[in-house]
Amino acid sequence: MSTLGLSADELLATTRSVRKRLDFDRPVERSVIEECLEFAVQAPTGSNQQGWRFLVVTDEDKKSALGDIYRKGWDIYSKMGASSSDDSPAIPAGNRGRQQMRVVRSAAFLAENFHRVPAMVIPCLPGRMGDDSSMMSASSLASIIPSAWSFMLAARERALGTCWTTIHLLFEEEAAEVLEIPYHEITQIALITVGYTLGTDFKPATREGGAEAVTYWDSWPKK
Length: 223
Known about the structure:
With 223 residues, the chain is α+β, with helices and mostly antiparallel strands. It has one domain: NADH Oxidase, CATH 3.40.109. The protein contains seven helices and five strands. Strands 1, 2, 3, 4 and 5 form a five-stranded antiparallel β-sheet that branches. The radius of gyration is 18 Å and the shape is globular. The termini are far apart.
């Protein structure tokens, strides 16, 4: 299919979490998702294990069931320091606070309309991630997150919007039953919503202080 023709820098700077600007009424062609997944499996993976697995969900009944699970999780999550109330202490003041409120409202919108998302992609890994050491956990995640991000970048170039979500994992076993995933053998890492976007003019996000504000050299700063 045709692509937007973004430069690498433009692609990296404008791949946003898309919630309100998803076109719920336009299906995403299987061939386009498959094309994006081909880029996903070009990503680096820990020890070259290539254990990544991707479950694509477009079945209406299964999306509806996942929507119910997601909303149940959102109801819990939105009360865990991520409240949408304007006087929530979790919301900072100033421009960042206003930006955060927009994110919270768009997340609530996505939760309400979750079942309407044209496609869902669930990246998975073999085995159960439990009480592994931090090194083992980091290695496992490094074998799936870069590939998922490559998928999301490829999707952006093809006028698709994505959003990395994990709230359904509060009820992962229930989701596994819906999707016939062997829960004790496979770990779901996330659920990426996928759909064509309403317009393609996404801009770089505002990051306070830029990279300089969060980057240290050679040692951690003293308090």
